[in-house]
Structure prediction request, 541 residues.
Amino acid sequence: MIPRKRLVGLGAFALATSLVLTACGGGGGGEPAEGEGPSTGIVSVGNGEPQNPIIPTMTNETFGSKVTSSIFAGLVYYDAEGVVHNEVAESIESDDNQTWTITLKDGWTFSDGTPVTAESFVNAWDYGAALDNAQNLSYFFEPFQGFSYDENTSIIEEGGLTVEDDLTFTAVLNQPESDFPLRLGYSAFYPLPESFFEDPEAFGEDPVGNGPYILETWEHNSVIELRPNESYTGEREVQNGGVDLVAYSDEDSAYNDLLAGNLDIVTNVPASAFGTFEEELGDRAVNQPAAVIQVINVPEYVDSFQGEAGLMRRQAISMAIDRDQVTETVFSGSRTPASDFTSPVINGWTEDLEGNEVLDYNPEEAKALWDEAEGIEPWGDEPLLIASNADSDHQSWIDPVCNGIRDTLGIDCEFDAYPTFDEFLDARDNEEIKGVFRGGWQADYPAMSNFLGPIYGTGAGSNDMGYSSEEFDAKLKEANGEADPDAAVELYKEAETILFGDMPGIPLWYNNATGGWSEAVENVTFGWDSDPILYQVTKSE
Prediction:
């Protein structure tokens, strides 16, 4: 494993105690043996069309994030096990966990030859935080002094960010937050070159980064070609001739291409192959825990789920789902029934949470709750619609979930299918969903807070349900500000108990990373977040 670099100051203790993960990267070995040079083959990876332009603070879905994480380098990066390493940062220091001094390593440049400076980070963060720029990841800057959801502000002008010199800047938070350095490897905190601010729209199509790869071409709905960045000076040294992210409209086609030798890596095995892929691929298969959870989200704008009757319906639907049966029969054990809103690979996770009995299969109680809700406000003849994209294998689990709901609650239930992932996301974001919808969360950084605040905090960028709870927000703020990591974990658990009382989402199961690779590539490792570590993959011509 790459040696861990130390983050000095008070943040070092917080990081060390926050990163006790139970999942390890698995796959075909680690980095190439000493003395071997990088391979020159182009590695092909199954992917899809990114929903948004390639702007770090705008990209919050998996197809785009494979690009941003490859072409940008942040202050820190996460290795396969979720351990934090300094990348552009020389040090991240604080005496009080509220005012942070960040010093950069000298000599970093963007792929256009311009230097990476303190202003590259400060200006990028300020842009991402500003209300008028409507960036999907703006909520990551909520802790900064001067951030506002209500009016356009500059966190630079309000004192949240200050450039001290070319390689040093300070970040001032509204309260002490001990896990602040842990977040800084996520794409919201990447730097941007001056060319971005001259024409953000053009940049989103042809981005310039400072990471291990450059984006050479982007043929929409076809392929994104990433090639090694010769000016990259960090530890994520590229061991291949480049990566082609190939857009597929369904996962079965990608998997079949892998079996035929026409694709090198699949990052999601389709449901049709769950029972066979480990036998078919042998030691080229991966099936390991990852920081990913699937839920059914309940939009606050759907009247049928509001008020006392609406809460009873949320609880009834949850208890009508036999998670054990679905994860075993549909996913062949590659999913684990959820018992909370986070992930078992994250420090602090527990099965013992107040209120989580609502996730147990209990058809009798589910029916009783549904009937009680009917006495308050009748559901009517409309089916329960579960919305998701049809270019993945979600129908394979939605159908049996709907069958259980029909049998238990006595109502109709249907898959509300959108042809592609980006069409589904657009309908979700435009509040066009008529029932409930699938939600999947892949962690941005390895901490409980990342499964709670970005999804359920009021106004958060991935709070696609429109959920808002002053009690939850206050508890989350208290947990974020707790300097003692163990005490913070207990506060996050209390925040989860509030969620169980409101059920803005219905946790289903935790995903394993299920993927595989062809005989043409070696050194394939899937990380803590379920993504393959692309720069380590080797392939001969």
